[in-house]
Amino acid sequence: MHESVALVLTLPDGEHVLQRRDEDAPSARGMLAFFGGGVEEFDLCRHHAAAREQDEEINKEFDLEYVGYFLYLSHRTENKPILCINVYKGEVDEVPAVNEGTAEVVDLSELSGRVDIATSSEAILARMKGNTWH
Q1: What integer pLDDT is reported at residue 83 of this predicted model?
Q2: How many domains does the chain have?
């Protein structure tokens, strides 16, 4: 099973900043997604991976707080976990410049059911609404 980190960025007014993935991105091309990525072999731990992803994708330093994790299931693997997603949150004072894709301000309550949101990000939204973390 793979492990990843997702960074949930919040503005002072409560809106969130998501990433619009590039059309040539390795996954979720052109989709809205939370910032983040995989935990790599060289990462010391998931916290290190979150800090590395913050540095790689977002041109701004801010504190990250660990929220929790959940196991992402796939119907293609008979509902066996295929990904452990570790979620972190952080507040930014303005929309940051980003290194990959573009940053978009969104109201999370309006994202559910949209066709342009990455599947794993939709799963994160569902956990955020129900506050169902491990």
Answers
A1: 82
A2: 1
Closest CA to 2 of 37, 32, 27: 37
**What are the tokens at 25?**
């991105």
**Per-residue pLDDT tens digits for 33-76:** 899 999 999 999 999 999 999 999 998 889 999 999 888 776 66
Instruction: Determine the structural domain holding residue 110 and report its residue range.
Output: 2-130
The pLDDT score that the predictor gives to residue 106 is 87
Q: Determine the distance from the C-alpha atom of residue 78 to the mean position of all C-alpha atoms in its chain, rounded to a whole number.
A: 24
CA dihedral 38, 85, 129, 75 (to 10 degrees): 100
Distance CA(40)–CA(19), nearest Å, equals: 21
Question: H/E element holding 127?
Answer: helix 119-130
Tokens 């998501």 locate to 18
Place of tokens 């290190």: 48
Q: The CATH number of the domain where 55 resides is what?
A: 3.90.79.10
